[in-house]
Write a structure and sequence with these properties.
There is one protein chain. The chain has 191 residues and is mainly beta. The protein has 1 helix and 14 strands, in the order αββββββββββββββ. Strands 5-6-7-8-9-10 form a 6-stranded mixed beta sheet, with no helix packed on it. A hairpin with a 5-residue loop joins β8 and β9.
Length: 191
């Protein structure tokens, strides 16, 4: 590769059989024609980013001026070829700026999976620590759309690992119930 090639923003060179390329503002490592600003192709199972000081960080930054609410700051995609050799996004993780107002910033992390060919949001962790499973905007610390399976359920310090059994002998009313008390057979209603 020559200085003229570098000035023109094009060139491919190799060292020990590995391609390095610069093409119209793109850098490729292990690939001759990069399709993104930085593209790394390797036959190894991993790519390592190393830092020699004690505060190793990997940052994805969206440096767009004037971000708006709901902007994805960074997306990590997990892609591969399907059975017909189509490049497919099988899953992704997204970090989103939900609120961008100065002093009120809030963000979330969202997890997507490919379901029958469509990328679908499955899980969201909001800025207040609420977790939604199948719920895009959780209103409780854990908000689930669908069935939940657990070995034990605790409300406060009251933990159960099975539903109570037995008979109900008396139901009083009040606090939203009418029609009682019921001592044997009867009907109660929501007020």
């Amino acid at each position: 590769i020559t200085e003229t090639d570098l000035d023109a923003g094009v060139g491919v060179f190799s060292k020990s059989g590995t391609n390095y390329s610069i093409a119209t503002g793109r850098i490729g490592l292990g690939i001759a024609a990069p399709s993104a600003s930085l593209e790394v192709e390797t036959d190894s199972t991993e790519v390592v980013f190393s830092d020699t000081d004690s505060s190793s960080n990997f940052a994805l930054r969206n440096m767009t001026t004037g971000l708006v609410d709901g902007t994805d700051l960074g997306v990590m995609s997990f892609d591969g070829e399907d059975s017909a050799a189509n490049l497919t996004n099988f899953a992704q993780i997204s970090a989103r700026a939900d609120t961008t107002a100065d002093g009120s910033e809030a963000g979330s992390i969202r997890f997507f999976t490919n379901e029958a060919g469509t990328l679908t949001e499955q899980l969201v962790l909001t800025s207040d620590g609420s977790l939604g499973v199948g719920v895009a905007a959780p209103t409780e610390k854990l908000d689930v759309s669908g069935k939940v399976k657990a070995d034990e359920l605790c409300i406060g310090n009251d933990c159960l690992n099975a539903w109570p059994t037995g008979s109900v002998f008396k139901v009083d009313t009040g606090d939203g119930l009418t029609g009682g008390p019921v001592l044997d057979d009867g009907t109660i209603s929501l007020a």
